[in-house]
Amino acid sequence: MTEKEDNTTRLSLKYAEEIAASIRSVSQASKKRKRNEDTDDDTTKLSLKHAEETATSIKSISQASKERKQTLRASSDTEAEDTHDDADDITDGDHQSNPTKIDATTHYAIRNNPQSHKRLAIDEASCIITGMANPEVCHIIPFSANEKPTTTKKLFQFFSCTGSVLFPGEDGRTKSKRQKEAQRYFASAVGVSDHKWNMVSLNRQLHEWWGRAFFALKCLDISDAPPDKEGKKMKKLKLQFHWMPWRRTTDEPLLGLTTADMFSGAFSRSTNGNPLAPKPTIAALRVGSGQPVITGDIFYAHIDSEHAEKMKLAFDIQWAIIQMTAIAGGAEALELVGDDPDYLKDGEFPGIRAQWQAALGLYFEDVAERREVSGKGKNVDRGNEQSGAKHDDGGGSST
């Protein structure tokens, strides 16, 4: 029960008791008057009967409201106890070796640096996407989501209300297994998910863009991986990279976008991940090959076998939330476009995808031409050096 509902119930009970007391006073006064006047007026009898019945009804309503209030309070306490029980049940190695520390004054979680160092070691001190050195260890489900008691409670309620969205196919009337696991591993206590299975290493720029929902990582499956240096069993999560749609103009409403071209210009996949897109450019390159990171690229995140399912759950929640964030505001534009098969087909945008693929093709053509020109220049220089050397030899022999 919310504070507002609690106040409303308390006020209703107060009014009910006051009304009941007033009716009892009227009833007693009527009885006294009857005795004094010694009359058998039927109207007076009927009024007294109604007054007593009304008072009895109000008492019943008041009692029922009190019982309902007690039931709701007991239910809330039981749910809170279940939450703490879930937190106590998490007894894996990470929680035992590096338990979450809580500030005694603020009751906020303190960042678990030992777990960050373990995550960095697993990722070999490099970004799992670009391969760049000196990455930042970032959380899959944000640290701030359960840093405080208030945010932890809100996260628990969030999973309760959005289970059918985050975990499709589950029965919305009862808590699903994955919904309970989400509440347990991410919202059962302050700082409960500040562990290596909820972390991954990314370079600083990708870390920033991930927080802005410019891209998302979709976990496709879990498979075996070679054991670590200590012989511990490991798993690897297969992650598919996705650049998210991004509106380049945030000061103009989407409601005015009445054509497919207008929509694709303001809300297009071609703006993210395309090195040739107008500035400011949002793109990433692989260090080893120099190729741009594009939607569909596969990367891997390793983790101890016992934590693999928890890490996949974190990525699944992240994937669902970023999709919802990325498409926010685009519904009205899609409704205005209509049923153009060349624009929207099977839930995708073939026209936008074609633009993106064409831009990527131009990029690779430009790279190839530069290499070809550079190669020809070197050949010309080498040819001149060789012809110059022959001329000198000829001149020397004639003298």
Topology (elements, then pairings):
Elements lengths: L2 H35 L4 H48 L3 H5 L3 E2 L6 E2 L2 H10 L13 E4 L9 H13 L1 H4 L10 H11 L11 E4 L1 H8 L3 E11 L8 E10 L2 E2 L12 H7 E2 L29 E7 L3 H19 L4 H7 L12 H49 L1
Antiparallel strand pairs: 1-2, 3-4, 5-6, 6-9, 7-8
Helix pairs in contact: 1-2, 5-7
Describe the structure.
The chain is mainly α and 399 residues long. 54% of the residues lie in helices and 11% in strands. It has twelve helices and nine strands. The strands form four sheets. Strands 5-6-9 form a three-stranded antiparallel β-sheet, covered by helices on one side. It has a two-stranded antiparallel sheet with strand order 1-2. Strands 3-4 form a two-stranded antiparallel sheet. The termini are far apart.
Question: TL;DR?
Answer:
The chain is mainly alpha-helical. The protein has 12 helices and 9 strands.
Number of DSSP strands?
Answer: 9
Secondary structural class: mainly alpha
Describe the global form.
Answer: elongated
Q: Spatial order of the strands in the main sheet?
A: 5-6-9
Q: Mind describing the biggest β-sheet?
A: 3 strands, antiparallel
Q: Indicate how many domains the architecture comprises.
A: 2
Question: What low-confidence regions span 5 or more consecutive residues with pLDDT below 50?
Answer: 78-85, 249-258, 331-344, 384-399
Global mean pLDDT: 74
SSE string: HHHEEHEHHHEHEEEHEEHHH
